[in-house]
Amino acid sequence: MKQDFPQYGIAALCGLFGKTRHAYYDALWRKEGNLVKEDVILQEIIEIRKDLPRLGTRKLHHVLQKKLETHEISFGRDYLFDLLSEHRLLIRQRKRKAITTDSRHWMRKYSNLVKDIDVIRPEQVWVSDITYIRLINQWGYLSLITDAYSRKIMGYCFRQDLAAEGCIDALKMALNNRLYKDVIIHHSDRGSQYCSHNYVDLLLKNGIGISMTENGDPYENALAERVNGIIKTEFNLYSSSLGFEQTGKQISQSIKSYNELRPHASCDYLTPMQAHLRSGKLNKRWKNYHKSFTFENTSV
């Protein structure tokens, strides 16, 4: 038989724990409010990751704070980490790598001009590199030129081979996208593509200084390597089943989203497009986190 509990049952139960009925209902209201807050945050995360599919939690927290001001919702980074973990939305990092650089060639190699330089304006230093993308039955190779100050990708080219023409096409795009006429230093590894006559000739004709890594150490071109990693990791481009042409279109859209939407902790949480319109020192908003973190150890 169904038993009807008297109305004072809740009051008696609260009394056992030293709580009032108001405190009990207040806790229920808070719980309901937290569920609504959580749902709003998750919906915004889904929208952001349509364009930035693997954006890390710290940068996601920065973007969400601005978007949720109109909802009068605020939350800390630890709350967001817990929420993403609960819903299996944390980003796992991948390991690399294939070799795209051949520096064992006879062509002239240049000195490193940027190892002690203080980058204080856009289009002061450009960094270049090539990365690979696994397709169904082949490899695709993406050449990138990135502005060291703003982290803006100035030029790119996706090809089915490692010929110098891909790097040359990326450089031509970067030159067409210039906003300033100040002197530029172009920094790269010692790969044959960057030492080729046609590539060097294009740099010299445009009055661009030539700088290269000296010891084969990837840390001498760490920024270019890092941007490669962001494009592949955060935009799901380690591999593609779309075919070469469709993958090329996906790369173009990813670079557009990267330039226009993705904030950089090393650029005061500005997007590359925003930072490219600034000059002077930009605040570094990232911290060195413990190596014990297995997710999202990002600093760019």
From TrEMBL:
<dbReference type="GO" id="GO:0015074">
    <property type="term" value="P:DNA integration"/>
</dbReference>
<protein>
    <submittedName>
        <fullName>IS3 family transposase</fullName>
    </submittedName>
</protein>
<feature type="domain" description="Integrase catalytic">
    <location>
        <begin position="118"/>
        <end position="280"/>
    </location>
</feature>
<dbReference type="GO" id="GO:0003676">
    <property type="term" value="F:nucleic acid binding"/>
</dbReference>
<dbReference type="InterPro" id="IPR001584">
    <property type="entry name" value="Integrase_cat-core"/>
</dbReference>
<dbReference type="InterPro" id="IPR036397">
    <property type="entry name" value="RNaseH_sf"/>
</dbReference>
<dbReference type="Pfam" id="PF00665">
    <property type="entry name" value="rve"/>
</dbReference>
<dbReference type="InterPro" id="IPR012337">
    <property type="entry name" value="RNaseH-like_sf"/>
</dbReference>
<dbReference type="InterPro" id="IPR048020">
    <property type="entry name" value="Transpos_IS3"/>
</dbReference>
<dbReference type="InterPro" id="IPR050900">
    <property type="entry name" value="Transposase_IS3/IS150/IS904"/>
</dbReference>
